[in-house]
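Protein Record: Sequence and Backbone Structure Tokens
======================================================
Tokens: labelled as protein backbone structure tokens, with as many entries as the chain has residues.
Question of interest: how does this chain fold, as expressed in backbone structure tokens?

___
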Amino acid sequence: MKTEDLLKLLLPEYLIEYFDVVKFEDIDGLLHLYFEEKNTIPKEFSVLQLQSKGFHEEITVDDFPLRGKAVQLHIKRRRWTDLKSGKILQRDWNLIAKGTRMTQDFASFLKKISRY
């Protein structure tokens, strides 16, 4: 089993598929995981000539606790420049549940348990 396979069991799968874990810290019982979007051109833009032009501002999202520690995901999304038009492009991510600072999975989980 690869480390990547283990991480897919603990974290949202899309994070492991499309992002690299670049750092993690345990600060006073709060686990901080840092992700940067991989430098892979999105399939929807495969016909364009794109060049990576850094990242958008980092977002921080609460996720499921791990081993009794609160978890915050620090996510940096990549942006690309279309070399022909000069337009800035990005993947269409829906990482955060609307009205919260939590991942969609975590928000759905909390919604389900609040019914009991």
